Amino acid sequence: MVRLEGVTKVYRTDSVETHALRGIDLVIHAGEFTAIAGPSGSGKTTLLNIIGGLDTPTSGRVIVAGRDLTQMSPSELADFRLHTLGFVFQSYNLIEVLSAYENTEFVLLLQGVPKEERRRRAMAILEEVGLAGFANRRPTQLSGGQQQRVAVARAIVAQPQLVLADEPTANLDSETATRLMKLMLELNRTYGVTFLFSTHDPLVMRMARRLIELRDGKVVSDRTVESS
Amino acid sequence: MVRLEGVTKVYRTDSVETHALRGIDLVIHAGEFTAIAGPSGSGKTTLLNIIGGLDTPTSGRVIVAGRDLTQMSPSELADFRLHTLGFVFQSYNLIEVLSAYENTEFVLLLQGVPKEERRRRAMAILEEVGLAGFANRRPTQLSGGQQQRVAVARAIVAQPQLVLADEPTANLDSETATRLMKLMLELNRTYGVTFLFSTHDPLVMRMARRLIELRDGKVVSDRTVESS
Ligand SMILES: Nc1ncnc2c1ncn2[C@@H]1O[C@H](COP(=O)(O)OP(=O)(O)OP(=O)(O)O)[C@@H](O)[C@H]1O
Ligand SMILES: Nc1ncnc2c1ncn2[C@@H]1O[C@H](COP(=O)(O)OP(=O)(O)OP(=O)(O)O)[C@@H](O)[C@H]1O
Ligand SMILES: [Mg+2]
Ligand SMILES: [Mg+2]
């Protein structure tokens, strides 16, 4: 599903270079449920953004669902994201002028899904993340953790092939986080949605079936764990 | 240091009322180091914002450092915040056009602290949170956890009487979070800075000396814990 070959990312600020990714070689197979852990600044967001075609590597190749992202035009990348990916941003990136419901149904709208089906699916997923009663709220009328869950609902409502989630439980209490993870595990097991998420949360790490550790832009460990 | 008497907060959206706080009576003494835990949507941010004079209660009284916030004008509140409080927002609220250094020194600038002292103190606190090498970065050039630490540096650089921190470790790995908490404990023990912070992080809860639990806008438990 995802193959990275020799991916580097160098940011240049004020003549200072930051090597956010230092030669990542990585394969994520379809159907995996994988967590990426690592200290603050270790490259997790950078890696997810590159896999999601939201950023470009300094060098290397990024193949997702059979396509080399480094060879795609901006409009091809946008089309690829719309039809293949769900993304949960670390800062949520909800559209402030849209309600929780409208944020959630937005991807389905862009995909041309008919209104009634959009409504059914968006409301079902908001119910699953515990927010059915908040559907008409704008992001500024929601708590931090509620916004985070809308971001997750939006990312998974269209059951994309691959979901990239950047710290999807950071602002959630354990019970709400567990509920969310179980929802994602169900999508993985029932529909084969591949999940790759960054996290600091030990609860999330425990529920993953594979744990990759980053440190200073490098993969320092990659192990499969058996979970129940 | 902080006294809340019968504080309620009701948000009205689309004819729907949300009772974010349902009659909070609470005393925080000077020098305490207190965590507030509770599920997503339980009222933590609302409570901190009211104590910090950033929001007004629907009813009740809020007395901080001897002043009733509900009786203060906006300019009195702004002056109170500048000279008494440090605040770490859940979404950081860094000033995007300022560097990490400029964000950090900003409060000292407003307080009229001379340039050399501002520089010394801002760089010292950035060093303490592990970000001395990132001082010239703008927020968009920092990782999520790095931005969070700038937000904390900014809140504590002026050693305010009271620091209110809304989930200050949500985007940090355990090691970085522990380092941050130890820094805050040192300020508490050495300078008597009062800390009140909301959190979902068990690590943070363990380091607090008092743990208040909120549920559906009410305090459901309030216990002092002895820590080493
Ligand atoms: N501006 C607003 N308008 C309407 N409702 C609001 C507003 N702000 C917060 N609320 C609601 O008030 C309740 C408490 O919100 P608050 O942000 O205090 O929760 P919280 O405990 O900080 O949650 P989290 O852990 O998710 O950050 C929530 O149900 C939320 O939806
Ligand atoms: N736009 C940018 N310009 C310059 N440097 C950047 C930029 N974005 C990220 N960096 C730097 O690249 C490194 C990796 O950043 P990244 O956001 O990938 O880390 P992270 O592992 O997600 O951290 P966190 O856990 O704090 O979110 C960091 O040192 C960061 O400061
Ligand atoms: Mg990140
Ligand atoms: Mg909150």
Descriptors:
binds adenosine-5'-triphosphate; homodimer; 36% helix; 7 helices; four-stranded antiparallel β-sheet; globular; alpha/beta; binds magnesium ion; six-stranded mixed β-sheet
Write the layout of secondary structure elements.
2 copies of one chain form a homodimer.
Chain A: E1 2-13, E2 16-28, E3 33-37, H1 44-51, E4 59-64, E5 67-68, H2 74-84, E6 85-88, H3 100-110, H4 115-128, H5 144-156, E7 162-166, H6 174-191, E8 194-199, H7 202-207, E9 210-215, E10 218-224
Parallel strand pairs in A: 3-8, 3-9, 6-7, 7-8
Antiparallel strand pairs in A: 1-2, 1-4, 4-5, 9-10
Helix pairs in contact in A: 3-4, 3-5, 4-5
Bound molecules: adenosine-5'-triphosphate (2 copies) and magnesium ion (2 copies).
One adenosine-5'-triphosphate sits between chains A (11, 13, 18, 20, 38, 40-46, 90) and B (140-146, 171).
Compact overview of the structure:
Two copies of one chain form a homodimer. With 228 residues, chain A is an alpha/beta fold.
Polypeptide structure, described:
Two copies of one chain form a homodimer. Chain A is an alpha/beta fold and 228 residues long. The first copy, chain A, contains seven helices and ten strands. The first copy, chain A, has helices at 44-51, 74-84, 100-110, 115-128, 144-156, 174-191, 202-207, and strands at residues 2-13, 16-28, 33-37, 59-64, 67-68, 85-88, 162-166, 194-199, 210-215, 218-224. A six-stranded mixed sheet of chain A has the order 6-7-8-3-9-10, sandwiched between helices. In chain A, strands 2-1-4-5 form a four-stranded antiparallel sheet, covered by helices on one side. In chain A, helix 3 (100-110) packs across helix 4, helix 3 (100-110) runs parallel beside helix 5 (144-156) and helix 4 crosses helix 5. Chain A is globular and about 45 Å long. The model of chain A has no long low-confidence stretch (mean pLDDT 95). Chain A binds chain B through residues 11, 13-14, 16, 37-41, 45, 90-91, 136-137, 141, 143-146, 148-149, 166-167, 170-176, 200, 202, and chain B through 11, 13-14, 16, 37-41, 45, 90-91, 136-137, 141, 143-146, 148-149, 166-167, 170-177, 200. The site of one magnesium ion has 4 residues of chain B, from helix 1.
